[in-house]
Specification:
The complex is a heterodimer.
Chain A lengths: L1 H19 L6 E3 L3 H8 L5 E6 L4 H16 L4 E6 L7 H10 L6 E5 L4 H8 L9 E5 L5 E5 L4 H15 L1
Parallel strand pairs in A: 1-4, 2-3, 3-4
Antiparallel strand pairs in A: 2-5, 5-6
Chain B lengths: L3 H30 L14 E6 L5 E7 L2 E7 L10 E2 L16 E4 L5 E8 L6 E8 L10 E2 L7 E8 L5 E7 L3 H6 L7 E8 L10 E7 L6 E4 L5 E6 L9 E8 L2 E7 L16 E4 L5 E8 L4 E8 L10 E3 L7 E8 L2 E9 L4 E8 L10 E6 L7 E4 L4 E7 L3 E6 L5
Antiparallel strand pairs in B: 1-2, 2-3, 3-4, 5-6, 6-7, 7-8, 9-10, 10-11, 11-12, 13-14, 14-15, 15-16, 17-18, 18-19, 19-20, 21-22, 22-23, 23-24, 25-26, 26-27
Chain lengths: ~160, ~400
């Protein structure tokens, strides 16, 4: 009986996230997600882009990032919607799709206490978006506040490719 | 029998667990992901609460909860409140941006003017709506757009000048249309303004005070000793530098020259979602607090101007940089200047206080006056004739109106 219950509980524990996140929906970004994300991409050059559906400059930059991802398959591209409330997974997903980022690793802030999420990522970050973090193969993080220049991203990407050789 | 019964029970338990915890988890995760404690329109569920004292010492609040704007008043400094009056007629997609909130202003007669923003479409274009009450807050006119123009508007500020006219300013994207038609790039938004001589029933045509200002930060509005509106806002200076600027109006229809509050050199093409705060003391001194992440300085700062905003003192750093200081507010209360801001230590948000009794020349050491372990609104300051209060909405602990201690 106990074992059955445990199995049922374990099954249930996995259900809500599977149900909530349909195919292609942004993953909920919660406490601890940042460390998991860093761990999952350790050793891979990774571009993490923070944005939001109501942010004007983000609307301009997002399609440029979609293009960047296409041209640089060697870079892991991660987007995190860091708009505060409410969560707007549909609007978020449709903007990502239109920008050519539907197949990127996409996340969405899922904690009303956004200070706590931002603090885990960078205690100095007050929530301004867009924001891009370039994580090198060796874990070195370069933060670009505001819209990134694609030329700078290309330069960083080329430098990352050079470190393999 | 003895075998089947437990199996049936297990199946039943599984079904029940499948139904109940899913609901519970969905609800929990929903509330967890929301800044609101609940979904109804009552004060307890509000994410943004704005206070103002009426001429008779009554505290008025307007808040955003459950997709509606409501108003209630308190005659005992926030211990108890009147039955809320709903200002909006239907659930709206209210502007939930970090720097948005409903605003209210009360004149000497007790008339109440209210302004707030909604997202009018799927592209998050905003619309500023206004309404008023001429029966002491018992009822409000149906909310109306502040302007007939349909381009995005957000971040309104509203206040009664001493002559009893309502002055409002907001950020408005209308000038991007002609710029785009000319094939030119348009940065930011225009700072527009209008005024009303009938407590907010009708407003004058919108006029431009400054173009290409930062499009995503709240404005700060105060009136100088002569009753002229003064607006501080995050501007976009040459080279995309989003530092603060100030305009003192020569009358409600005429903006004066634009002056720079500080050279922080924050060059950024982004939405800081972090606007300034302004108060003008009885001595006529302008006191401004703001956030920047510029090359010249980073964090929260305070400066004052004794010449009507033409020049400002050297910025004074406020708060502990390693505690993510944010949301500074300043007010010239009946007993001196009061400044509050948020800090965050990884677990809790605290409200920190400094006071000055020499018009901003020297400040007390910071002290923590409140904290909370979940999301919270900005800490706001409000004064009646006798003292200054902290007005703070928190998800975990509800609404607080707290007397600022330490005032002599």
């Amino acid at each position: 009986m106990k074992r059955h219950l445990l199995a049922a509980l374990m099954l249930l524990a996995t259900l809500p996230s599977a149900l909530a996140a349909g195919e292609g929906a942004p993953r909920p970004f919660e406490r601890g997600s940042w460390q998991k994300l860093l761990h999952a991409h350790a050793g891979h050059p990774t571009l993490v882009h923070f944005w939001g559906v109501t942010c004007g400059p983000c609307k301009v930059e997002l399609p440029e990032l979609g293009q960047f991802m296409k041209v640089h398959p060697g870079i892991d591209v991660v987007t995190i919607s860091a708009d505060l409330v409410p969560n707007l997974p549909d609007a978020t997903r449709s903007m990502l799709d239109r920008a050519g980022l539907g197949s990127a690793e996409n996340w969405i802030f899922d904690d009303g206490f956004a200070e706590r999420l931002r603090f885990e990522i960078d205690p100095a970050w007050q929530g301004d978006i867009p924001r891009t973090m370039l994580i090198a193969r060796d874990g070195t993080i370069t933060t670009i506040e505001g819209s990134a220049e694609i030329a700078d991203l290309n330069k960083w990407s080329d430098a990352q490719a050079a470190t393999i050789r | 029998m003895t075998y089947r019964k437990p199996a049936a029970l297990t199946v039943l338990a599984t079904v029940m667990l499948a139904a109940v915890p899913n609901l519970a988890v969905a609800q929990m995760s929903h509330q967890h992901a929301s800044e609101a404690a609940c979904e109804e329109t009552v004060l307890r569920c509000a994410t943004k609460v704005t206070p103002a004292f009426g001429p008779d010492g009554t505290l008025w609040l307007t808040w955003m909860a459950g997709g509606q704007i409501s108003v209630a008043s308190s005659k005992d400094q926030g211990k108890s409140f009147s039955a809320p009056v709903q200002v909006t007629r239907e659930r709206l997609n209210l502007d939930w941006g970090p720097d948005a909130r409903p605003k209210l202003a009360i004149d000497a007669k007790g008339d109440i003017a209210i302004a707030f923003s909604t997202f009018r479409d799927q592209a998050f274009n905003g619309q500023v709506l206004t309404t008023r009450s001429t029966d002491g807050g018992r009822s409000f006119d149906p909310p109306k757009p502040i302007t007939a123009n349909n381009e995005s508007q957000r971040f309104e500020a509203i206040g009664f000048d001493p002559a009893g006219a309502v002055f409002t300013a907001w950020l408005d994207k209308r000038n991007r249309v002609p710029a785009q038609q000319r094939g030119e790039k348009y940065d930011g938004a225009g700072l527009f303004f209008a005024s009303s001589k009938d407590s907010g029933a009708t407003y004058s045509d919108a006029k431009l005070a400054a173009d290409n200002t930062c499009e995503c930060c709240r404005l700060a509005l105060a009136f100088d000793g002569a009753g002229h509106p003064v607006v501080v806002f995050r501007n976009i200076f040459e080279g995309g530098v989003r530092d603060h600027a100030i305009v003192t109006f020569t009358d409600p229809a005429t903006p004066g020259d634009l002056h720079r509050v500080s050279r922080d050199d924050w060059q950024i093409a982004a939405c800081p979602h972090h606007g300034p705060s302004l108060t003008i003391s009885a001595q006529g001194t302008y006191h401004v607090t703001w956030y920047t992440n510029g090359k010249a300085r980073k964090g929260l700062f305070y400066a004052r101007s004794r010449n009507g905003g033409k020049t400002f003192s050297d910025p004074l750093a406020v708060g502990q940089l390693n505690r993510s200081p944010s949301r500074p507010q300043i007010i010239a209360g009946p007993q001196g200047l009061v400044m509050v801001w948020k800090e965050f230590d990884g677990q809790k948000t605290s409200i920190n206080l400094m006071t000055s009794h020499d018009d901003g020349a020297t400040w007390s050491k910071p002290t923590v006056i409140a904290d909370t372990a979940d999301s919270s609104d900005h800490p706001l300051l409000v004064s009646d004739r006798r003292q200054t209060y902290l007005s703070w909405m928190t998800k975990a602990d509800g609404y607080h109106l707290q007397t600022i201690e330490g005032e002599p």
